[in-house]
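Write out this protein's structure.
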Amino acid sequence: MTQIVSVHSFRGGTGKSNMTANLATTLALQGHRVGVVDTDIQSPGIHIILGLRDEDIDQSLNDFLWGQCTIEQAVYDVTPAAVEQAGGRILLSPSSLNASKIAKILREGYDVGNLNDGFLAFGETLNLDFLLIDTHPGINEETLLSIAISDGLVMLMRPDRQDYLGTAVAVQVAKKLDVPKMLIAVNKVPSFFDFAEVRAKVESNYGVPVGALFPLADEVLNLASQGLLCIDQPQHPISVELRQLAHALISD
């Protein structure tokens, strides 16, 4: 049975898509079949991190939501060589970067129920071990429905006051939706912060375990969304934290 995991943040700019792509790859490097859905339809981009070019996208999640294709027809194999050698697979359903398609979504909307049907069909038809949902930041109908059907939720935040306050709202909502497993990942933690203190503060404030603390790193900036740190630098502290987060999601 597919384990559905939503990756969410209250605000944009947390590095959510980058973390989702690397988490998916980390799971796949362990031999799992992992699906990724980019539901950040208004500002998509995880396909770029996973190496899928715009010109290679024929059908997208947008087309599925408008009933123009099946979810399987909007899925692309983006498995890197290192993952294939490990026996894993990464399958991506991207949202379109086409301006007219984004405008159509904003103007006309879509049946949100189709989105959840697509998640379930994606996992079952393609025999996935994990399906990661890269959500749109904030609290909206799509995100609430995605979280409600998820087996796990990774809430990504930065260690600043705005994120502390906004994440508190998102965590309260998720708790009301009874997500079976919720973890917080703190991203872009400056090196001069006391990491143990950050972990203790977050867990105390929200009553949710911290699955990972990702340091602020120039290496991520240098990749410029064109590579996967967990493959390029497997011993980097961020890669180590990704493996710990993956383990926390897998373990009971």
